[in-house]
Amino acid sequence: MPAPRTHARRSRRRLQFLLPGGLLSVAALGVLALFFPGASAQASTTAKASAVSNSVKECGSVNLKGVSTTHNSGNPFHSDNLVCFDGVLIRYGDSAITYTNPPTSYATAGKLLFDQTCSSCHGTEANGLLPDGKANIGPNLQGVGAATIDFWVTTGRMPAADVAAVEAERKPPRLTDKEALEVAAYVNSLDPSVPAVPTANLKDANLADGANLFQLNCAACHTITGAGDALAFGTNAPSLQNRQVTAQQVVEAMRIGPANMPRFSGNLSDAQVRDVVAYVTEKIQHPSNPGGLGLGGVGPVAEGFVALLLGVGGLALICFWIGERS
Amino acid sequence: MSDEQEHGHVQEHEPTRTKVPMPIATLSDPHLGDAAKNPARAEAIIALILLLGTIVIAGFGAAYWDNWNPWAIGATMGAGLFLLGFGLTAWGKYLMPQGPFVEERHVLASSSEERGSMAAALVERSAVVVKRRKLLGGIFALGSGIFGIVAIFPLLRSLGPPPGTSLKGTDWKKGSLLVDSNGRSVNHGTLVVGGIMTVYPEGLQNTSVGQAVDQTVLIRVQDSDLVTAEGRESWAPAGYVAYSKLCTHLGCPVGLYEQQLELLVCPCHQSMFNVRNGAVPQFGPAPRPLPQLPLYFDANGDLRAQGGYDQAVGPGYFERTTTKENGT
Prior knowledge:
The complex is a heterodimer.
Chain A: H1 3-35, H2 43-58, E1 81-85, E2 88-93, E3 97-100, H3 107-117, H4 119-122, H5 146-154, H6 177-190, E4 197-200, H7 207-222, E5 229-230, E6 236-237, H8 247-256, H9 270-284, H10 300-323
Antiparallel strand pairs in A: 1-2, 2-3, 3-4, 5-6
Helix pairs in contact in A: 3-6, 5-6, 5-8, 7-9, 8-9
Chain B: H1 3-12, H2 39-65, H3 70-95, H4 112-126, H5 134-150, H6 152-157, E1 178-179, E2 196-201, H7 208-214, E3 216-220, E4 240-244, E5 256-258, E6 263-265, E7 272-274, E8 280-283, E9 292-293, E10 295-297, E11 303-305
Antiparallel strand pairs in B: 1-2, 2-3, 3-4, 4-9, 5-6, 6-7, 7-8, 10-11
């Protein structure tokens, strides 16, 4: 399974900036305890609340265009855990999903990559404008959040193979995961925004809830088996059975609504998104076909066709052999 | 054959049969194929096939008994039966004499005398025994007639429960609170632009009627109030617009929302509804726009319905006119 490997890589990466952040919040708690003697026993419970109230000013300005105001649905200021440092939003989320911004130190390398790979369509300022102020080919990327950049780049959709195509198709990524985060750090530095790059904690996921939510919210376009389907005007809902689709990318897609996919915001909590993702990565991508060939779960018509073709066709051949006259 | 001949046969009480002696099988029999002329080799090959089939069938027994994985059970059963059948067929095909064998049969028809006496007996007896019996015939006709009527019942029942008033209206009424499948209400900040969710009137989200008739898609199209059509100025506050989820073609759930194209697409027959202009169908077989639910924010900031749908939801039926314009 590829998931744990990327998981480990990601958590190691997170450690680089979480460690100082964590140390600092411990120090801040210590200071708090000094101001409120006797409150140290409660410190662990009040930590979350104080972190939120403190960080609103410490987080600097954050463009919240892309998130709802529902609690624990991807909005940093309506989530259980919020970590900011020095005017920069570092991490937020809850026990189900943690959203982490790539470290600001990535932005320098990210600008270089952006200039080389993205700027010809999106403009050097990532604002979708040519130097003369006219609209460029690509859209404005400022304020879309690091998760958006990470999704489009790690799924290989960007840089696009054909800018005139109706939709940028999934393909092997041109940039590495780290380079994607670097580009995200650069674009995010131009207009700090959310959603940040998510990590789902699939350990406590409820697969049954995930299946229900998948049927209600996802199956309409991606089909009940996640095989994907054609939509209007040459667009399509891609297959989710592709095991290269990671849990992180599924969370990103739900929270950012890439291309024609709707954006699932306040109507799905982080815990519910986590459940859906667990269902996709465990059941959709690893279907159990106790009866034999699943045929990609494309449906009874296709299955019946194959059964008729192989079954009746095979029987016809055998009949031909039995009845053959010498 | 002539009458005379038939007559003679009847008298002798012997069936007419062409006597063809069954040929004695020899290796020079023209009915034997090439393989059968060298039977030792063919028999060995067929024996091998049958033996293999026997072993695989025994393996199937072991697989079934020991509960191996379904692939092994299916493969051993399939392969075993196939090998046994293959062996059996090959036995018949390559070791046995091949036809065509012709066996003459006697004339099937009775003689004219027999037919004549039968007809005479029928006519003679009909006056007493074989005649019309109105009582029996009438009772039988009654019984089978009732059975014929009863046979229609399951057909009617298979159409499902009667629709009641659900063809005319839904449970949405003035002040109905919009809730999702978990019963949570929707406020100003719940959806961002490009978001979609399915909502129900409060309390009916887990009922079959609520899920079948009242289901409504709630889409946030823009940040500011949206006017989808003349006379609907206040229906979509803060860009929240709600349409019946039942396609006006055949009632499929219109759940595919393409947020850049701002189109709702029906998965069954690809009807496309533009969410900006009141869900007027712009492609596909749907004859009418999706009915739009007028919304407002209450004092708590939760979305409620200004009233029910102004027209019946779902597909058209014979008492309803279907015009493209306003669906009235």
